[in-house]
Amino acid sequence: MLDYLIVGQGLAGTWLSYFLLQKGKTIKVIDQWNPNSASNVASGIINPITGRRLVKSWRVDSLLPFARQSYQQLETLLDTYFFYEYPIVWLLASVQELNAFHEVSGRIGYEHFIKNISTTAFHPQFKSKQGYAELQQTAFVNVAHFIASFRKHLINKDLLIENRVDYEDVTITDGHVNWKNVRARKIIFCEGHRAVNNPYFNFLPFQLAKGEALIVQIKDLGIKDTLIKSNVFLVPLGKDNYWVGSTYIWDEQSEQTTEKARQNLCKRLEKVIDLPYKIIEQKAGVRPTTKQRRPFLGVHPQYPQLGIFNGLGTKGVSLAPYFAVQFAEYLTNNTPLDEEVAIKRHLND
Which terminus has fewer CB within 10 Å in the chain: N or C? Predict the structure, then answer.
């Protein structure tokens, strides 16, 4: 009998699998490859300061060092690279944005993240001439490569079952759970936006957010190791290719790309650069998010054989390692979960 069956190999399932294996637990991951999963479409940006109000991301002072350490550990294990400590250059569109950055740079706890504020233009091919702010302790995770590399590791260890879980195939008995011919002490659902249809966790208030992005080629831009924040995010992918995104549509489950999003992204990109570009690919994915922007971790109140790790949203690349190791500790040693992420907070809603 296995210790854990893990459903889904996105960011949540990958990191939880890794930390449970580190603890010597026996696992199998059940996952049907989906190139349009949220993890495969994600930008992979780790950004400590976000939004119009320029606020620090939740728990950023703990999340970022742990994420850096964890991704680098997995790079060593998998003998590849997917974690890049690139700065973010935030192109400023107005004097008000410039003043806002000067104001927050003086706040306690923000000085570690704002490296430079300039009133000069960052790059001759960008239309923004007001100036820019350079953020540090930022990074880009090539999420698709990260997921694919760990998937190969699971396959080599005979730990991956390439299939999709139908809930009617899950049976619960005293002390364990069965899925088809596989028996485990617990099954943990890390299934992304499909969790909204999970009958065991339908009390959780998921919100879905569909995002679309473009892969474009811009031959004469020459940005190689910097993330650009403006009307869109530009992430350099090499060979003059850039990830450009993204759009947001709430409560949408379709993974199909749309012409509306394509035009929206093109319009926004053209407000940023003065160069021609070629669209290589358009991508769409659906993120499972929550109203409070906090993940869901825990086991079912009636069936402790069932667990869930989900709701990572747009901050998934930084949230996943930190809370995966916390969940692994909870599952194996009954260490209490952070109250802001534990699903028990929703049991009386």
Answer: C
d(CA 122, CA 124): 7
Q: What is the mean pLDDT of residues 245-261?
A: 85
Q: Which two tokens stand for residue 240?
A: 């003059």
How far apart (Å, rounded) are the C-alpha atoms in residues 311 and 291?
10
**d(Cα 70, Cα 68) in Å, to the nearest integer?**
6
φ, ψ at 261 (rounded to 5°): -65, -40
- Tokens representing residue 157 in the block: 């260890």
- pLDDT band (50, 70, 90) for residue 290: confident
Exposure string of 116-139, with b = 16+ CB inside 10 Å and e = fewer, is ebeeeebbeebebebbbbbbebbb
pLDDT exceeds cutoff 60 at 349: no
Residue 188: closest CA among 22, 326, 299: 299
* Structure tokens belonging to residue 193: 């936006």
Closest CA to 282 of 246, 238, 230, 235: 246
Asked if 228 contacts 275 with a C-beta cutoff of 8 angstroms, the reply is no
Amino acid at 57: S
- E-assigned strands of 72-181? 83-84, 88-91, 114-118, 132-135, 139-141, 160-161, 170-173, 176-179
Half-sphere exposure of 159 (CA within 13 A, CB side): 25
Give pLDDT, residue 76: 98
At which residue do the structure tokens 């659902």 appear? 189
Q: Range with the lowest mean pLDDT among 98-112, 174-188, 258-272?
A: 98-112
Report how far residue 227's alpha carbon sits from residue 247's, in angstroms, rounded to the nearest whole number: 17
* Short-list 80, 71, 84, CA closest to 152: 80
Percent of the chain with pLDDT over 90: 72
Rounded Cα–Cα distance for residues 134 and 140 (Å):
15
If we measure between CA atoms, which residue out of 214, 179, 234 comes closest to residue 45? 234
The pTM for the full model equals 0.93
